[in-house]
């Protein structure tokens, strides 16, 4: 797509919430430890936050939004829109953002809707939500992003050690003095099967066999209602498309590597992210990671990394960023933006689920 420019939108705050419970990828039988250690080194993930005891993704989302609103001191009736980017909806319908509008006590004049996207979801979400903001449009928007993707069933080890659960909340506000944002997007639907849950949609509804393990051509046992990953296809797409997208955006905007303070990538795994970094070059300190402590947190991984690794930086000075998300779809989205200091606490941990329950469902 042609490079898109958005003016007069400022980032005001960013919060991250993860479950307090976490899984240790090295907590295996001693006989399996050596092989698991090798896997952990390759993917770069030791710990993964995981929802347990009835906690679900919308609990993380509610807590992230509450912490953001409280931290900014925003009155709830000044929030014009609440947009949720997730693949972990509370119900097939209605949109989870609308349920959260009620749970958060936001005004009924608040627009609320969901965007279904994973790995690249943060950059696409920020771009779409920033596009809604202007002098005669929305003034304040909260963007919730994340997924409940952690797995503990141990059927597909290559997948099971990757994903962590998280939700982030980002506050955007109209500001005539804000520096412009630039966005580059790319989609290749021919690769839609590279990351897919085969059953559960209208083409293949859930059935009694959906949870049966089946031996796939690559020798891995998988269920039809769980995430299937084509590792080589994901690696090839990510390590080719992400550098091209970032380089193309930088060329169009007129940026050199030294003009960017931090490149924050979707946290896919260590091998993919290191390959992208080496193709791009630059100071390794300018490429932060949250993989070791949080794993691949899907669309939340860029803001999780900012909260975990750059909280002090983001809250204390102006920063020039490139954020690049890539993966499911297949898709890639890259943002360049410059931010003034904004509210950016370190990640919060949620101990237990909220008491919210539907009232009319038997």
UniProtKB/TrEMBL annotation:
<protein>
    <submittedName>
        <fullName>3-oxoacyl-[acyl-carrier-protein] synthase</fullName>
        <ecNumber>2.3.1.180</ecNumber>
    </submittedName>
</protein>
<feature type="domain" description="Beta-ketoacyl-[acyl-carrier-protein] synthase III C-terminal">
    <location>
        <begin position="251"/>
        <end position="338"/>
    </location>
</feature>
<dbReference type="InterPro" id="IPR013747">
    <property type="entry name" value="ACP_syn_III_C"/>
</dbReference>
<dbReference type="Pfam" id="PF08545">
    <property type="entry name" value="ACP_syn_III"/>
</dbReference>
<keyword id="KW-0012">Acyltransferase</keyword>
<keyword id="KW-0808">Transferase</keyword>
<dbReference type="GO" id="GO:0004315">
    <property type="term" value="F:3-oxoacyl-[acyl-carrier-protein] synthase activity"/>
</dbReference>
<dbReference type="InterPro" id="IPR013751">
    <property type="entry name" value="ACP_syn_III_N"/>
</dbReference>
<dbReference type="GO" id="GO:0006633">
    <property type="term" value="P:fatty acid biosynthetic process"/>
</dbReference>
<feature type="domain" description="Beta-ketoacyl-[acyl-carrier-protein] synthase III N-terminal">
    <location>
        <begin position="113"/>
        <end position="175"/>
    </location>
</feature>
<dbReference type="GO" id="GO:0044550">
    <property type="term" value="P:secondary metabolite biosynthetic process"/>
</dbReference>
<dbReference type="GO" id="GO:0033818">
    <property type="term" value="F:beta-ketoacyl-acyl-carrier-protein synthase III activity"/>
</dbReference>
<dbReference type="Pfam" id="PF08541">
    <property type="entry name" value="ACP_syn_III_C"/>
</dbReference>
<dbReference type="InterPro" id="IPR016039">
    <property type="entry name" value="Thiolase-like"/>
</dbReference>
């Amino acid at each position: 797509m042609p490079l898109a420019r958005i003016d007069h939108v400022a980032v005001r705050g960013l919060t991250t919430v993860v479950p307090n419970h976490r899984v240790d990828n090295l907590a295996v039988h001693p006989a399996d430890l050596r092989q698991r250690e090798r896997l952990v080194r390759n993917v770069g993930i030791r710990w993964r936050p995981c929802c347990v005891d009835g906690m679900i993704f919308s609990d993380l989302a509610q807590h992230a939004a509450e912490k953001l609103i409280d931290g900014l001191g925003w009155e709830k009736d000044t929030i014009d829109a609440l947009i949720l980017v997730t693949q972990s909806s509370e119900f097939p319908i209605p949109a989870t953002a609308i349920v959260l509008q009620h749970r958060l006590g936001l005004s009924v004049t608040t627009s609320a809707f969901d965007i279904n996207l994973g790995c690249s979801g943060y950059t696409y979400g920020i771009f779409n939500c920033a596009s809604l903001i202007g002098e005669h449009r929305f003034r304040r928007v909260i963007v919730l992003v994340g997924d409940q993707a952690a797995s503990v069933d141990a059927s597909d080890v290559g997948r099971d050690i990757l994903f962590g659960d998280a939700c982030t909340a980002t506050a955007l506000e109209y500001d005539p003095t804000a520096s412009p944002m630039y966005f580059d997007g790319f989609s290749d639907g021919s690769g839609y099967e590279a990351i897919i849950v085969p059953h559960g949609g209208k083409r293949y509804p859930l059935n009694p066999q959906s949870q049966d393990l089946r031996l796939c051509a690559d020798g891995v046992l998988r269920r039809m209602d769980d995430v299937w990953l084509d590792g080589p296809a994901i690696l090839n797409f990510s390590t080719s498309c992400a550098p091209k997208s970032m380089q193309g955006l930088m060329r169009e905007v007129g940026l050199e590597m030294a003009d960017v303070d931090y490149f924050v990538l979707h946290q896919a795994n260590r091998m993919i992210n290191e390959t992208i970094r080496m193709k791009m070059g630059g100071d390794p300190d300018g490429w932060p990671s949250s993989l070791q402590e949080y794993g691949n947190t899907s669309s939340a991984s860029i803001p999780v990394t900012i909260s975990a690794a750059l909280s002090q930086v983001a809250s204390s000075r102006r920063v020039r960023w490139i954020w690049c998300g890539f993966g499911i779809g297949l898709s890639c989205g890259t943002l360049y933006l410059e931010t003034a200091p904004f509210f950016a606490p370190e990640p919060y941990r949620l101990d237990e689920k909220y008491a919210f329950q539907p009232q009319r469902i038997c």
